Amino acid sequence: MLDEENGTKLVIQKRQGVIVFLYHMKQIKQLKRFGIIQYISKKMKYVVIYMNQEDLPETIKKIQNLKFVKKTEVSHRPDIDMDFGARMGEKAFKLTDEDQEKFKNKSE
Questions:
Q1: How many CB atoms lie within 10 A of CB 66?
Q2: pLDDT for position 56
Q3: Rounded CA gap, 28 and 34, in Å?
Q4: What is the spatial distance between Cα 75 and Cα 39, in angstroms, rounded to a whole number?
Q5: Which residue from 4, 40, 43, 42 is spatially nearest to 19, judged by alpha carbons?
Q6: What are phi and psi for residue 66, nearest 5 degrees?
Q7: For 79-88, how does the pLDDT look when each residue is reduced to its tens digit (9 = 90+)?
Q8: pLDDT, tens digit, 9 for 90 and up, residues 46-67
Q9: CA distances from 58 to 11, 21, 63, 96, 99 (A)
Q10: Distance between CA atoms of residues 31 and 39, nearest Å
């Protein structure tokens, strides 16, 4: 895709979610510099941040070194195969013998 104003290519950044568990919710603004905050749970005291995959290991180390952070967890969604179409055709719609008999009786 080309940017019409500058004539440069727009590159889509690969991003990954990181869940950051906190001791206190006061320092949420400090987390904005590491990525885009997608969700904040005040009751369970965690924040979901999306950041670039390229910088992920370094950024997680920086976040873990903050005093108000309990722990961090990386989302596994990029690792999961999201192509369910091929699998659905193989297994989902196989009829048992009883079901085949029922359909035969209805069609007659």
A1: 15
A2: 92
A3: 11
A4: 14
A5: 40
A6: -70, 140
A7: 777 776 666 6
A8: 999 999 999 899 999 999 999 9
A9: 22, 18, 9, 53, 56
A10: 12
**CB of 49 closer than 8 Å to CB of 38:** yes
The tokens 């965690």 sit on which residue?
Answer: 46
10 touches 3 (CB < 8 A): yes
pLDDT at 7 over 90: no
**What are 90's two structure tokens?**
């193989």
Measure the CA–CA gap between 21 and 23, rounded to whole angstroms: 7
The answer to whether the pTM exceeds 0.85 is no
Task: Give the position of tokens 């085949």.
Answer: 100
* Other CB atoms within 10 Å distance of the CB of residue 3: 9
| Residues whose CB falls within 8 Å of the CB of residue 43, separated by 6 or more in sequence, listed in order | none
